[in-house]
Amino acid sequence: MLQEDVKRELRSIVGNEDYKDDMQSLVTHSYDGTPMLQSLPDGVIYPADTREVSEVMKVLNRYRIPLISRGSGTNLCGGTVPVQGGVVMVMHRMNRILEVDLENLTATVQPGLNTKQFITHVEGLGLFYPPDPGSMAVSTIGGNIAECSGGLRGLKYGTTKDYVIGLEAVLASGEIIRTGGKLMKDVAGYDLTKLLVGSEGTLAVITEATLKLIPPPRYKKTMLAMYKDIYGAARTVSKIIENRIIPATLEFLDNPTIRVVDDFAKLGLPRDMEAILLIEQDGDMESVERDIASIEMICHSENAAQVSVAESAEEALKLMTARRSAFTALARLRPTTILEDATVPRSKIADMVLEINRIAQKFQVQICTFGHAGDGNLHPTATTDARDQEEIHRVEAAFEEIFEAAIKLGGTITGEHGVGLVKAPFLEWKVGSAGIEMMKAIKQGFDPLNLLNPGKMFAKESRKRVVIDRG
Amino acid sequence: MLQEDVKRELRSIVGNEDYKDDMQSLVTHSYDGTPMLQSLPDGVIYPADTREVSEVMKVLNRYRIPLISRGSGTNLCGGTVPVQGGVVMVMHRMNRILEVDLENLTATVQPGLNTKQFITHVEGLGLFYPPDPGSMAVSTIGGNIAECSGGLRGLKYGTTKDYVIGLEAVLASGEIIRTGGKLMKDVAGYDLTKLLVGSEGTLAVITEATLKLIPPPRYKKTMLAMYKDIYGAARTVSKIIENRIIPATLEFLDNPTIRVVDDFAKLGLPRDMEAILLIEQDGDMESVERDIASIEMICHSENAAQVSVAESAEEALKLMTARRSAFTALARLRPTTILEDATVPRSKIADMVLEINRIAQKFQVQICTFGHAGDGNLHPTATTDARDQEEIHRVEAAFEEIFEAAIKLGGTITGEHGVGLVKAPFLEWKVGSAGIEMMKAIKQGFDPLNLLNPGKMFAKESRKRVVIDRG
User: Which segments constitute the FAD-binding PCMH-type domain (chains A, B) (predicted)?
Assistant: First the structure.
């Protein structure tokens, strides 16, 4: 709990109603989308505008109290768990679309804006904002920026980073900074915009963002290819890219995921397949038809057992919705679902799936794998039970070995979920000690008192790279 | 000149031949593509590989000697002038394409590789590397990364930043760092890759880069639209974008530039036009034909005096080459050519051209304007004479006012040339004092002894924003 005079100051900024520290508010903001992590904050605050964010930050800075900014807390890395207490700042009141500029094809929005709502709004104006994280129905643009969210369309269209061209943010001092603008090109100094994207709330509180919009594709086509041999699916992914085709979406589901998704979405998927690829191409009709025809040929040449192109937009939407339901469907299996995002060069997808299966077997845990195959961004997902400590240890040991395998294949510990708490002990594996040192220097420069989302990104100790079988 | 024992150490690393401090070598590396700036280094060194770069850096760090890494020195911001002496490190021996990975569509290259040669090489493999700075026939990939180079294809395809996905670099300590990789998605920690791109040699020496390649467009079409009214041209630019068309290239040339380019390239351009737009669209035939037809209609609706579509690839190439010759052509007019890159939101092109013309008139200087209209990235170019101090003062005062006008229109002081020496006094206008502070904190973290390209990016004093008419 904060001292009374701090609370008084905070309430004088946001109003009595918008600072809370009743137990219900504290518990509600003690966790996020990541399983098995919980820590109570001292208070929860709901600022109405940038000035309030700045004033709150100044007070917290003066009293050396941590600030954890968050949107809907859908992240999967423990990114918004207040591990060192402090004040959780919920951005939901700052949820407006400030402008859509049709001449410059930009939108300026507040961080608490819901992602899906924003995507739908710009679609209504005949424009396109591609980043579509799995959580988009609930997530906020500010949270997407903090984590540099990806999604199903990342392969062709890139991730959140590629669409953020300007930011307003509040620094740890309470000062307000503006980076970039409605500019397609800007090399005035170091790129603070791209640095803040994906900085997980550890460098500044984002209070406004200018986003690039693009013309929407005119036409799209969706298809499914099913394989009895998982490597046929993986080779198909490589061959598509090698053939200079970049589909909008190129998703992979392994057999356990297929069965679970089918139970959930009732699509009548063949349950004996080892892998399914869900492929979507968009663009002009001519190029889409050509690409889909080429992809069909590649699928057949890799011995796909069945290849089918969606007959209608409804059917295509049904398939995409089914894929989007994978996490939800898996979550029904057992009490605890741990979804990871080890990522490898896209040519290494088959090797990575092999490794995941070998490791799951070794530790006797259930891991289903699905994800963005075209990006090399897989989601090995363990279904387990947090109450079974012994099993959880085996799951953790398995993931540790999966991260190590990803690094060995030239990959990374996280493709789109972020480091947060969960990956912090593994960050050094990817970026090396010199990388950690430079990142810490940046953190130190921005936030010398370590008030912004402390305890995230950097672990007290890096995990040793020798995996100890704790099972 | 360096002490004898330092030179001995440096020569023992790179060999006798590859450290030079004869007057010819020093003078040759005392300037770059930027007019009127010159400062002698103490020595020039040519490393053969990353290990040598690291060893050299360690020696220089020990003796507190500045290091200025450079490629071909084509930059236009004084970015590689050794203003505080020290050792210029020329990357030309590290000029190999290490790998083109056809499965992952990436290339791994050394920094001294020539840009044009790289583009041509990957084109031969049926791939596409879009960044095409005006200097690409001479420039290096390392230099392009240091400055985040743009080019004519930036509008549709983005700039260097959008294609660098992994780096190897040597830090001021001599330590070697690796960022990113052959990964389309990677959120492991702060994005050091994008931070190093455009950091102008002030944070690290880039020794290797992994670049993203894309499938090339199958078809392209080039057209010219000529206007008696400059605002008709500007409105055309806005209308094209508003109509959800993003051309590959959308270039603007004003009347003085048209005349000079025509004298140089002998295209028979109509010399009485106030503005020409050079437009190229690429992609599939269907979409290119549709876009070009729409653009033609827009041009006519904005009272273009003449609209013509190139009949052949040769004719299109001739037009693009003429545009690319603008700088060279202007440089023939008078002894000194100062080319700037004030950039505004693309909807503000007309306002910016108006401002440039007003300011040129006010200071009685000759400024021709051309550039990447679709990006809002204009190149107001003064033709002057460095020996005429009085005129040069007027030119400088005019540019100061042009930068101020760009900022007022929501723009930036530099769209693609970088800050270097030339824009350093103006950086604060764009990023504010808090922005400067954060950038300095990053610099301090990476290079606490200020050895890497010192004197760049940050000015001792910011220019006051009140422009004094020194004419």
Answer: 37-216
